[in-house]
Each structure stands twice: as structure tokens, then as C-alpha cells.
Amino acid sequence: MPEDPNGSLPAGDRIQKLKEQIESETIESEEEVEAFRIQYLGRKQGAITNLFDEIGDLPPEERPEFGRRVNALKSRAEERLEEARARLKREEESGAAEIDLTLPGRRDFRGSVHPLTQTLNEILRILQSLGFSAVEGPEIETDWHNFTALNFPPDHPARDMQDTFFLKDPPEGEEPRVLRTHTSPGQIRVMQEQEPPIRVAVPGRVYRNEAISYKSFCLFHQVELLYVDEGVTMAELKQVLSALARALFGEDVKLRFRPSYFPFTEPSAEVDVWGADDDHPDGGEWLEILGCGMVHPNVFRSVDVDPERYTGYAVGMGVERMAMLRHGIDDIRTFYDNDVRFLDQF
Ligand code: DAH
Predict the structure, then answer these.
(1) What is the CATH number assigned to the segment(s) 115-343?
(2) Which of 184, 216, 217, 319 gets mutated to test ligand 1 (max ligand atoms within 8 A of its CB)?
(3) Looking at the whole model, is its pTM more than 0.90?
(4) What pLDDT digit, counting tens, does each position of 259-316 carry?
(5) From the alpha carbon of 222, which atom of ligand 1 is closest?
(6) Which parts of the chain are beta strand (E)?
(7) Does the pLDDT value for residue 33 go beyond 60?
(8) Ligand 1: which residue has its CA nearest to atom 6?
């Protein structure tokens, strides 16, 4: 007989111990089912089987009671085996139902670069190839950088509460501050820090207190260009803008330079791109993408650059406009809705 840890106990107590042991056994795999069966019910040396063999050694009057208890124990052990087998079978079947190999796989959710950022990156890449390096300026500007230094007269309508977000109550002795309404103050900051020759692109967010519609939003993006050196001409400006438009919209892009007015340039122009549209009665329309001009001498004076020695051109372009033209988007607000169904297309 194998070593029986309960062997020295009276037969009745051994039945009780075995019962507890059988109840506490965990049976969670086919292997454990088989091990349990052999340990308790095995034909040779099963713990319960061995108890039956002891009946003959007992006084005759104890045999019926002992036999009844061992039988009950055996039934309980068999019950536990049946339970475990049924449970394992159920698990196997339901597990098989959960994995349906014919189902299509789940698509990974991946973020993508926002269409505005894509267009901005493309613009900066092209400008870099034309010799412009990107620098940034602050979104909160002084009134001086945003307006005064750019030759806005004190009563210019652009300073009106209608267009500009003013910051509340400037600290004692400090001048009023605004959310920049354009990237042009970037010109001023660069010229305050750098001597000509200067050739920079200033990208960034700008803010306007305007009615929101399909064509205007309270915030948008611009890229400012500034080139200052001796002998810079308007002809160069035209060449650079044509090269940029061809790279961005294709070789056969149609451009139009229109005379215009800005306080900080003289002469000034606006540039339109022809947007072909079959639904339009004229087959398309001219869409304004930027303002530009030769830097006004007063702007040079405000940052101590000598207007007798240097000339320069400046450009301010709208990134949303460019992205809308490139992708045929007709509502500026879609850039700011964060609707994944829109963003997914780019
Ligand atoms: N700052 C102007 C605006 O936001 C755009 C602009 C026009 C920028 C002409 C320029 C420029 O640099 O030369 O409407």
C-alpha cells in the first residue's frame, strides 16, 4: 500500500478527512480529471477503493455503517468528476463559438496629419527650397507690434473692437495687448533682432473677432514672408509667388495680381488663384489667397532699418484658403470641427 497520511487514524475519521479532501480538490483540466480519478477511484490503490478493501477487517456489526459511508464518499467523488467533465465540455464549446475565423479583422485606428498641417508643411517645404527659413512669433502681441510699427494710423478701422480681440486691463504702465490679427508683427520682431539680408517665413495662428460663416472663422492660419536686402524688387516678388503657386497647385495654375492697399506696403497687391468649378456659370471664379507688396519705408523706420539703403517685399497668405483650394473644401469650419469622417479623407 502507498503511504497514507491518514493511515494511523481510526477508519471513521479517515472517511471524514477524505471527504474534506475530495471537496477541496480543484479540477480544471482533462489532466486534473484523470489525476483525480486515479487518486480516489483508481482500481488499484485508489483511496476510496482501498477503504472498500478494509471492510473485511472490521467487526461484523460495524461493516454496514462503514460500507454505507464509503459508498456515499464514492458517489460524491464520481459526482465531482461528472461536474468537472461537463464544465470542461461547456467551456470548450462556448470558447469555440467566440472565435469566428470567418469574421473580417478589426481595422487599426490610426491618427493622421490634419489637412491644414499638411498644407502648411508643404508651403514651408517649398519656401525653404526658395531660401526662406521658418521662424515663429508670439500669438499674444503688443498693440505696437500688431499695428503701430506696421504703419497703421491711430484711428485705422482694423484696430476697431469689431476685428480685434483685446486682452483685458494691461498691467499698470504697460501697453494694450491683443491676440495677433495677422502674422505681420512677425516681420517687426525679425527686423528687431536681425540685420538685413533677411529672408524668413513666419507661420502661425491669427485671431479675428468676426462673424463665423463658411468663409470666416475666429481663428485661422497665415504664413508671412519677408525678404529685405539691397535692391530687392517687385519683379522678384512676382517670380517667387508664381513659383510657390505652381509648386502648390500645379504647373498650369492661373494667377492674377490686383493692385490693393495695406498700410505696411507700398505698392500693394492681392493675388487671386483661378478656381475652376463646372457648377459655376463662369466655369469657376478668382479666389484671393494672399496680400503682398514692397515694405513701406515707415515700417523700416520703426525698426531702425535704413529705407534709403534697403528695400524689401512682404507677403501674408491664408493657409485655410490654400488648403480649401487644394482639396476642394467649401467650408472653413470643417477644419475646426474635428469630425473624424472629414479628417479621415486626407
Ligand atoms: N497682414 C495682412 C492681413 O492679414 C496680409 C498681408 C498683406 C501681409 C500684405 C503682408 C502684405 O505681408 O505685404 O490681411
Answers:
(1) 3.30.930.10
(2) 184
(3) no
(4) 999 999 999 999 999 988 888 899 989 999 999 999 999 999 999 999 999 999 999 9
(5) 4
(6) 133-134, 140-142, 177-179, 198-207, 219-229, 255-262, 265-276, 284-295, 311-318
(7) yes
(8) 316
Residue (of 227, 290, 295, 294) closest to 256 by Cα position = 290
Long-range contacts of 153-159 (CB under 8 A, 24+ apart): 153/263, 156/263
Residue whose CA lies nearest to ligand 1 atom number 5: 316
CA of 316 to the centre of ligand 1 (A): 4
Residues with CB under 6 A from ligand 1: 182, 184, 224, 262, 265, 291-293, 314-316
Q: Looking at residues 321-345, what average pLDDT do you find?
A: 92
In this structure, of 109-118, 214-223, 237-246, the range with the lowest mean pLDDT score is 109-118
**Hey, is 106 helix, strand or coil?**
coil
Residue extents of the structural domains in the chain: 11-98, 115-343
User: And the C-alpha cell for 64?
Assistant: 454496514
Q: Are 332 and 317 in contact (CB under 8 A)?
A: no
